[in-house]
Amino acid sequence: MEPGEDQRYANIPQQLADTLTQLTDLLLGEVDLDAILNLVVSSAPSAIGAADAASITLLKTGSFETRHATSDDAREVDAVQYASGHGPCIAAAQENARHNVSLAETTPDWPEFAAAAIERGFRGVLSTPLAVGDCKLGSLNLYSRSVGEFPPVAVAAAQVLAHQASVVLANAVAYATASVLNDQLREALASRDVIGQAKGILMARERCTPDEAFDILRRGSQRTNHKLRDVAQHLVDANAASQDDD
Amino acid sequence: MSHQEPAVILEAARQQATMSVVGLWIAYVALGGTESLAQVGHFLAGSAAPDAPQWDVLAQALNDSFVGLDLDHPVPYFDELGSL
Q1: What is the pLDDT of residues A171-204, one digit of tens each?
Q2: Predicted confidence band of residue B3 (pLDDT cuts 50, 70, 90)
Q3: Are the beta carbons of A179 and A94 closer than 8 angstroms?
Q4: Is residue A186 within 8 Å of B30, Cβ to Cβ?
Q5: A209 close contact with B: CB closer than 8 A
Q6: pLDDT tens for residues A45-98?
Q7: Which CATH architecture has domain A14-173?
C-alpha cells in the first residue's frame, strides 16, 4: 500500500458495518430480490474501498446475468464476459473462488474482458463468489480505476460483504420458492375440492367406492382427452344445474 | 414402454412432461393423491411401489400434462400395466 492510501481504507470498517446492518435488518417478504441486490451493489464501493464500480453476476441455470451495476461501464464489461464466455466474474461464480486481477498485467485467459475493461479505464477487478455451501449464486464484482490488484483489506471486506449477501440472497430465493409453492398448493386444494365433489356425486349416483368414482372420472378424461379436473367440474356443474331444475 | 419397470414408466413420463418432482406431486395432490412428496420421490426412483389407486392418480397427473400436446394419455393406468 502506498503512503497516503491507507486513508482510502480508513472508513471501511464503519461503511461495511453499516451495510451489513442494513442487510441483516432486511425482512424477507417485505423486500424483493432486486432490492437486496441493489443494496449490495450500491454500497459495495464505499464499503470495500478502492472500488469505483460494482456489479453482481447472477448464475441462472448455466447462463449469466447482471441484474444491478453502479455504472454502465461495469455492466458493459460484465456483458463482454457473458458474450465471450470467460472472465473473472464468470470464473468466480463457476469455480466458487475469488479472482483478484491486475489488468496492467497480461491476462491471456480473458483477452476480450481485459481489452474492454482497460478501454473503460479500469486497472483492476476483484470478483468474489456469492455462494452458500455448494449452492453457487453468482459473484460480487468490484472494478477499480486506481489500483490493479486489490489490497488485502479490500479483499477481506469484499469477502465479508459477499458472504453476508449470499446468506440473504439464498434466504430470499428460498422465501420466493416457498411463496410460489404456497400459491400452487392453494390452487391444488381448490382443484382437489372440485374433484372431491365430483367423486361424491358419482358415489351417490353409482353406489361405488371413492376409488371407483375416480376411475370413472379418469375414464371420462381418457375418452374425451380433457383434463380430469375439467371433467369433474363439468359433472359438478351439470349436477348443480339438474338440482336447480328440480 | 413395454417391458419397463413401472417406476421407469413414471419417471420417463415425468421427464417427457418436463415436470419437476415437486410439480408432479402438486398435480397429484390436486387430483386427490394422498402420499407425501418424499413417497412420490420413492415411487419415481423405484424404491417403493404405489398401490393401484395411487398409481392411477399419478398416471392421471402426468396424462393431464400431455392434454393439448396431441399426446392422448400416454401413461398407462394400473389395469393397463399387465398388458404392456
Answers
A1: 888 888 888 999 999 999 999 999 999 999 999 9
A2: very low
A3: no
A4: no
A5: no
A6: 888 878 899 999 998 877 899 989 999 999 999 999 999 999 999 999 999 999
A7: 2-Layer Sandwich (3.30)
Shortest Cα distance from A207 to chain B (angstroms)?
18
In angstroms, the CA A164 to CA A243 distance is 62
Taking the Cβ of residue A180 and every Cβ of chain B, the question of whether any pair is shorter than 8 Å is answered with no
Q: Classify the C-alpha dihedral A92-A95-A96-A100 as positive or negative.
A: negative
Q: Does domain A180-245 have CATH number 1.10.10.10?
A: yes
Best mutation target, A225, A229, A230, to test chain B (most B CBs within 10 A): A225
Helices within chain A (DSSP H only): 12-25, 33-48, 72-84, 88-95, 111-119, 152-206, 210-224, 228-245
Domain edges within chain A: 14-173, 180-245
Q: Do B22 and A181 touch (CB under 8 A)?
A: yes
Q: Cell 417403493 maps to which residue?
A: B48
**Cβ contact, residue pair B30, A226, below 8 Å:** no
Query: Strands across the sheet with A53-60, in order?
Result: A63-69, A53-60, A135-144, A124-132, A99-102
